[in-house]
Amino acid sequence: SAHTGIFAASDGSIVTWARMAPALWVLNPCRAVKPAPHIAFGSSKAVRRSDAVAYATTEGHLIQGVEHMRVTLSSPRDGSVVDFHVHSASRGSGLLGRALFPLLAPAQRRYFHEQLRCMAVGCAQ
Prior knowledge:
Elements: E1 4-8, E2 13-21, E3 24-33, E4 47-57, E5 63-74, E6 81-92, H1 94-124
Antiparallel strand pairs: 1-2, 2-3, 3-4, 4-5, 5-6
């Protein structure tokens, strides 16, 4: 069963969720934001397609920050290559968030590892 996920509404609202323990779930309110610009290195002809998504935390979230994910499909001579980059800049928000951040950081790392696992499964299909 899934341990993390993202729900995105048409108005730009996003809720990320993570299972912390069998009966304990964390819901994180966010909002979609404009992704950082893509900087291509090497030959621009090699890049077929690149897409990105970014979201920032909103009021009520225990973490203040932004997360950015980009997928780039390249086609070098020896076959297609998929690059997946995740960037997170975050810190605890408010007194409670700052106090709990050392405990929240491992869950955040698990969330990123789950994203990478899902990307690897998707690319293998």
